[in-house]
Amino acid sequence: MYSGEMTMVILLLIGLVAQSNLIAICASVLLIVQFSKMDFLFPYLETHGLELGLLFLLLSILVPIATDRVTTRDLLYNVSSLPGFLSIVGGILATHLNSEGLKLMQIDPSIIFGLIVGSVIGIIFFNGQPVGPLMAAGVAALFIEVLNWFH
Predict the structure, then answer these.
(1) How many CB atoms lie within 10 A of CB 31?
(2) What are 25-75's pLDDT values in tens digits?
(3) What is the tally of structural domains in the chain?
(4) Which of 11, 43, 89, 94 could, after both became Cys, cross-link 27 (CB 3.0–4.6 A)?
(5) From CA 19, how far away is CA 49, in angstroms rounded?
(6) Is 95 left (phi over 0), alpha (psi -120 to 50) or beta?
(7) What pTM was estimated for this model as a whole?
(8) By residue range, what is the domain housing residue 117?
(9) Which residues form a coiled coil?
(10) In which region does residue 72 sit, left (phi positive, over 0), alpha (psi from -120 to 50) or beta (all else)?
């Protein structure tokens, strides 16, 4: 078994132990792709996987607006209120951190394992909610940047 396959098996086990279905399913899918000799899909998944994931995430977020569970009036109130304004600022900061996290993962793809382990620890011990490695990478990039200020 190659190191990539072994890493996927370890991630599968971590996902199962931590009851993180996303990690377990992703590791399983990648193992199936590898073992079924459909590894020609890897470049496509690597290139477009993030876009597809964000597409489905955005679709799920916009459903309440599309189904009128959140009205235009609600949207206008939330944009003009202090919590709404702070949400906008939070969105700006989060997207910037995500961008930095994406750069970090492109520069050093091996960091993903640490991000997943950290996410699992957060789930198990801090009742955290996994939303994906991109934000974790953004926070890690911020920490690395702060550390670089002192070196």
Answers:
(1) 16
(2) 989 999 999 999 998 999 989 888 878 888 988 899 899 999 989 888 888
(3) 1
(4) 11
(5) 23
(6) alpha
(7) 0.68
(8) 71-151
(9) none
(10) alpha
